[in-house]
Amino acid sequence: MHRIVASRIAPLAQACLLLATLASAPAFAGDLTVNLQGIRTAAGLVKVAVVDSQAAWDGQAAPVQADGAPAQGETAQFSFKGLKPGSYAVMISHDENGNGKLDTNAMGMPLEGYGFSNNPQVMRKPTWDEARFELGEDTSTITVDLR
Fold first, then answer.
1. Residue 108 φ/ψ region, left for φ over 0, alpha for ψ in the -120 to 50 degree band, beta for the rest
2. How far apart are CA 140 and CA 79, in angstroms?
3. What is the mean pLDDT of residues 75-104?
4. What is the CA radius of gyration of the chain?
5. What CATH number is given to the structural domain containing 37?
6. Which residue range forms the structural domain that includes residue 122?
């Protein structure tokens, strides 16, 4: 009788183990390449943030991924690996003088380079909807023109 019960439990245990393995498998992920154009000076640090929500867009949550590198020419390229499929937006700032912030004039207009995914042509920070794009399971490349 002990062997009969064990033989009935074994397939159930195997099924549970299979489901647990599938549930813990990583979700498909995509890669994002961000090409920047229009870097004005080879001074300072270019910073790129990838966000996946309205809250992160508004600075109330951390970016999904971020990177930065010294400016070295008029163009730059950043790669972000392993992003889950979904909605994203990219924010770029070029801290040209290295003071750790995006400098603005008295009216609040940026004095240093900046840009956003989709290159929205607005005279304010674009909305999440204006800058967001969909990323699938493949590699995607976007180009951002700095202003």
1. left
2. 10
3. 97
4. 23
5. 2.60.40
6. 30-145
Q: What is the DSSP letter of 19?
A: H
Alpha-carbon distance 132 to 92, whole Å?
A: 14
Name the amino acid, one letter, at 120.
P
Q: Write down the residue that tokens 């909305």 correspond to.
A: 127
Distance CA 43, CA 130 (A): 29
Does some domain include residue 113?
yes
Q: What dihedral do alpha carbons 134, 84, 39, 128 form, nearest 10°?
A: 50
| Angstrom distance (rounded) from CA 28 to CA 137 | 6
Q: What is the pLDDT of residues 31-59, one digit of tens each?
A: 999 999 999 999 999 999 999 999 999 99
Kindly state whether residue 25 falls inside one of the protein's structural domains.
no
Residue 77's alpha-carbon distances to 10, 15, 35, 70, 72, in angstroms, are: 53, 46, 5, 12, 11
The whole-model pTM stands at 0.80
Cα 79 to Cα 31, 36, 37, 71, distances in angstroms? 7, 11, 15, 16
Count how many domains the chain has.
1
How would you classify the pairing of strands 86-95 and 133-135?
A: antiparallel
